Structures are given as structure tokens and as C-alpha cells.
Amino acid sequence: MLHSTTKALALEHDLALVDLDGVAYRGHDPIEHAAESLVAARDAGLGLLFVTNNASREPESVADQLTGLGIPTSADEVMTAAQAAAALLRTRLEPGASVLVVGGAGLVTAVEAAGFRVVTSADDAPDAVAQGFAPDLGWKDLAEAAYAVQRGAWYVASNLDLSLPTERGFAPGNGSLVGAVRAATGVVPASAGKPEPEMFHLAARRRGASRPLVIGDRLDTDLAGARAADFPGLHVFTGVSTPRDAVLAARHERPSYVGADLRSLLETHPAVQRHDEWWTCRAASARVARGRLEVTGEGLVDVVRAACAAAWDAVDSGDRLDADTVPDLSVVDD
Prior knowledge:
By secondary structure, this protein is an alpha/beta fold. Helix content is 33%, strand content 22%. The chain contains eleven helices and 19 strands. It has helices at 9-12, 34-43, 59-68, 81-89, 105-113, 139-150, 174-185, 198-207, 219-229, 243-247, 300-316; strands at residues 15-18, 25-26, 29-30, 47-52, 78-80, 98-102, 117-119, 128-131, 154-157, 163-166, 169-172, 190-191, 212-216, 233-236, 257-259, 273-275, 278-281, 284-289, 292-297. The strands form five sheets. The protein has a six-stranded parallel beta sheet, sandwiched between helices. A five-stranded parallel beta sheet has the order 7-6-8-9-12, with helices on both faces.
């Protein structure tokens, strides 16, 4: 069930674990309302820590980009999947172990900072392979990874995102590149990034947070990771997963809150209540009747809230829900 608040969401939590692509920005472009909303939430007392599955960039580079977009950020307010991968490597390897890094500068820096020796060839007999996204990775890089994994190196991936948003559309992500190595070797890598919970736990411990909130645009990474970490999650509709996706979400990917964009941090989140067979959120209502989702009313985000409540209750009760009856529910400014 969706959560509700009687005061602005930013006042309910002490730290926001904020995704980047699709939430704070899209490729190199700003997302409308993101900067001013995050700055206002920080001014209200909410700590910010940007948590990204991108392992190719240094935290300083990410911080500089955010600052340039009007969100003043320091490097210690960024946690990358590269840092999470290095933390995962430390669970099995001693300092000084050799790691073949297949990825960008951010992953190299994180692995070296964790005390490991970075090598560049499978012929160096690495103890592990750490793979993260970098836009210039090629066949030779993937081949070296495959050779090392075939020879027994522990295979660790920074994340398994199949796609990543860019200003031109969705491009292959690290998960797609990992798929090539996996297809060649038959080995499934351990994953450090979202939706695994450790990245969120590391981030919350870094800031000593007791009431963290995860903010993301993807159900399969951000919100599934929030569920795995047992943290509440806010799904904003500015990136990959749509309002319709939220209504149809599997239990392990369901958000705790939904919002059109980051302005929802500064708003209360009304409760959804059941009245007979209808679920109502202010002036919006929804129900599932004979397997069909029916929605009515005003306030498109409230319609999504009511629809989520009706659909999730029906599915969890063992009732049939015909996905084809779930409308687009595209959210626009109310």
C-alpha cells in the first residue's frame, strides 16, 4: 500500500538517496523542477546523497555536473556503483589482490582506493574482474573480461541495468555489455549496484541516516532496491518507468510514494481509502471489476494513487487484473 503524509515529504525523512539519470537530469539536460525542488528540500533540512548505478564517472565529475545544473553538490554527496563494487570486492578479497577493471576512470579509482592492484590483461591472472559501464568499451575489453572469467576470476558487475537514458533516447547499459561476457562464459556476475540493497545501506551509513528515502525513476532498479533495503521509495515519472508501470508493478518493485516530478518532495501525500469496491484519493477513484481497472476523477497523480491501490489490492487478493485495461495514465502538470 502507498504511504501517506500529513506534512511535506521532505520533512518526514532525514536523507534522500537520489538517483541521477531520469531524476536529477536526463543525459546532459536538466529535468524541469528538479534543481529548485532539491535545493528547497535541502533548505528544509533534508540531506541529499546522489546514488547512481553509473560506474564510469568520478564523484567529483558528477558533483560538478549537478552544481552546474543549479544543485550545489560536493563529491562526498555522491555514491557511485563503482564505490559499491569496490566494497563488494572487499568482502572476499584481501588488500593487494589483483583486479581486472573493465570500465571507466571512476571504477579504476574506486578499486584502487579500496586497496586492490588494477591490471589490464587476463594474462596477469587477476583474482577478480570488475565490470562497469564506459561509453568507449569495445570488443577487446569484453574479450579480456571473458578470458579472465573463464580462468576462474571472480566476476563482479557494478550494475545490471540493460539500458541508460540519454538525450537521444535509451542506449545499451552495463547490463547489456555484461550480457556479452555472460553469454561467452556462462558465468552470472555478482552485482553491486541497484537493485541490490547494499548500495543503499552503504549510503545511509555514510550519512548516519535513520529515516532515509530512496528517489528514483526505475521500478526495476531504484524502487526494487528500496524494497530490498527496506527503505521507502518515491517513484517520480520523469524517466524510464511510467505511471502505468507503477500500477502494474510486481510486489518487490512497488513504490511507497508516487509523484509527477521532484516537486512531490515539497508536497503532502494524501491517503488512499477504500469505500466499498472503490479506492479513493481526494477527487480520484479506481476499482477492479471483473478483471478490468476502472478509473475516474480529477488530479492525475491522485488517479495514479487510486489506481495503484485498486490494482495492487486485487492482485494481492488473487483476483484477475487484465493489464490491457490499465490506461496510459500519463502525468501532466495539475
